[in-house]
Specification:
Elements lengths: L3 H14 L5 E6 L2 E2 L11 E5 L13 E7 L9 E9 L5 E6 L15 H16 L9 E7 L4 H8 L6 E3 L8 E5 L3 E6 L2 H16 L8 E2 L3 E4 L2 E5 L14 H14 L1 E4 L4 H13 L10 H16 L6 E7 L8 E3 L4 E3 L6 E4 L2 H14 L4 H12 L2 H6 L7 H22 L5 H14 L34
Parallel strand pairs: 1-3, 3-4, 11-17
Antiparallel strand pairs: 1-2, 4-7, 5-6, 5-7, 6-8, 8-9, 9-10, 10-13, 12-13, 14-15, 15-18, 16-17
Length: about 475
């Protein structure tokens, strides 16, 4: 029986290997169980669920076949065979050639801390000992009459070994192919395609600059896809805490992209207004607590109301997802990748994001612990250097971060189904942050939906990179 989860996996694989397909047809044995095969152009992909299937060729109306389990005997067709490893929910996470000798898919994993190190050591060990079949979740065979575009991709980059990450669930989902010195990003949604285009533009804007503290990828455009070079240094480490290396890289980025602008001219101002208006009419499609959501929206509206859009704000190009899993610490540089969310933001946006994301998602810290880390950060020499000569202070910039980040992600979480548990962690901490004394919304009445009482318990421009 084909489950919804399996159907979703098949849809992702079909988009990845047969991007021009227009339908899926599921088969059991050699009997098709749907009528999804087109009778005109061959644009359907057949999914074979049973190891007892015995197709002698592709069914009429099909131009591709996904066969799980036993490999069918179809010598006249081109075939790519992959083992795969599942996520905790049973969906496919990684694919790699069945004859892969080394776990190159670990290039797609940058987990920090003890858990990350143990995970990497375990996979390296099973490959070294020749018992890799013990960790795979299954095998899938991709058949096509001719070599498909994916074979052409790996040939172009001379990728004798490679692996595929199927992407994170959500509207920005993309697959990533890891090769020896390159990664190829393959957008699976319209939103993801826009982000890949944004990353290409950002990295191209970096080309005139010679960074001393920051390393960014080189690019090759591949139609709607994007190849980016591997920036991992020979010796690297990962850290879940914000270190001087991180802040020195942000200072260098500021030196190349600093500009003072009115708050109302920043992308965050218009976007947050539109997103908050949209939130009032967005239904919750999952198990997020409605009261908590209403209170967060009310506080965001109050926070935005407390701000003066004519206020001059120091800005810089921000990475947008400046987190331990998007970078490596080298000997002298910070090597940063995944610039899809880059754009002009108020100063310190990336520093605040690092503290919140690593604290919540890696360390499972409560808001009081995160606030303590922010208080210590505020006193650091690096932050004082970043804020030198500014009339806008650390905590005002912190409030701008809260407005931008929460108003961006909350609408997406409301629409996501099923919702990952990490989103619940984030929403819980956001709720506490917006009801804390540091938040400017505490200094003006909450308007619209979600007014709550305090302590309520609930579930000058330089030569710059211009990316406004």
């Amino acid at each position: 029986m084909t489950t919804e989860l399996h159907k979703n996996d098949c849809a992702i694989l079909a988009k990845l290997f047969f991007p021009d397909h227009d339908s899926l047809a599921f088969a059991d044995g050699n009997q098709l169980t749907t009528n999804d095969l087109s009778t005109g152009e061959k644009r359907a992909v057949v999914v074979l669920n049973s190891s007892s299937a015995d197709f002698e060729t592709l069914p009429a109306g099909a131009f591709g076949l996904l066969a799980f389990g036993k490999k069918p005997d179809l010598p006249q067709l081109h075939c790519l065979s992959f083992d795969y490893v599942n996520n905790a929910d049973g969906s496919i996470r990684w694919l790699y050639p069945a004859d892969l000798k080394t776990p190159i898919f670990l290039k797609l994993y940058n987990g920090a801390g003890l858990r990350g190190r143990v995970f990497r050591l375990a996979f390296r060990a099973v490959f070294l000992l020749g018992i890799k079949n013990r960790v795979k979740s299954g095998t899938v065979h991709i058949f096509s009459p001719e070599k498909n575009w994916f074979s052409q991709l790996t040939s172009r980059f001379a990728a004798s070994s490679y692996a595929i990450f199927t992407g994170t669930v959500g509207e920005n989902r993309k697959a990533v192919v890891a090769m020896k010195n390159w990664f190829c990003k393959i957008p699976l949604t319209a939103s993801a395609a826009a982000l890949v285009t944004q990353e290409r533009k950002t990295l191209e804007a970096f080309r005139p600059f010679s960074f001393e503290k920051l390393e960014v990828p080189k690019t090759e455009e591949l139609g709607s896809n994007l190849a980016v070079s591997d920036v991992k240094p020979p010796q690297s480490r990962s850290s879940s805490s914000l270190e001087p290396h991180h802040l020195e890289a942000l200072l260098e980025l500021k030196q190349h992209s600093y500009e003072v602008l009115p708050l109302g001219a920043l992308p965050l101002w218009q976007a947050s207004g539109e997103q908050l208006a949209d939130l009032e009419h967005t239904a919750i499609c999952n198990d997020l607590p409605p009261l908590t959501v209403r209170q967060i929206v009310g506080q965001l509206k109050a926070l935005r109301q407390s701000l003066d859009q004519n206020r001059l704000v120091p800005t810089t190009l921000a990475h947008g997802d400046f987190t331990p899993w998007n970078m490596y610490l080298g000997r002298d540089k910070l090597h940063v990748y995944d610039w899809e969310l880059a754009g002009r933001q108020p100063l310190l946006f990336d520093a605040f994001h690092f503290v919140f994301q690593s604290g919540i998602l890696l360390k499972r810290e409560s808001f009081p612990v995160i606030k303590k880390a922010l208080s210590e950060l505020e006193k650091s020499a690096e932050i004082k250097a970043l804020l030198a000569g500014q009339t806008v202070g650390f905590r005002e910039l912190y409030n701008l971060y809260l407005l931008q980040n929460i108003s961006y992600y909350l609408p997406r979480y409301l629409r996501q189904q099923p919702l990952h548990v990490q989103a619940h962690w984030l929403v819980g901490v956001w709720h506490e942050a917006l009801h804390d004394e540091w938040c400017l919304a505490e200094n003006c009445p909450a308007t619209g939906i979600g007014k709550v009482e305090k302590n309520t318990k609930v579930e000058q421009p330089v030569a710059s990179i211009n990316l406004l």
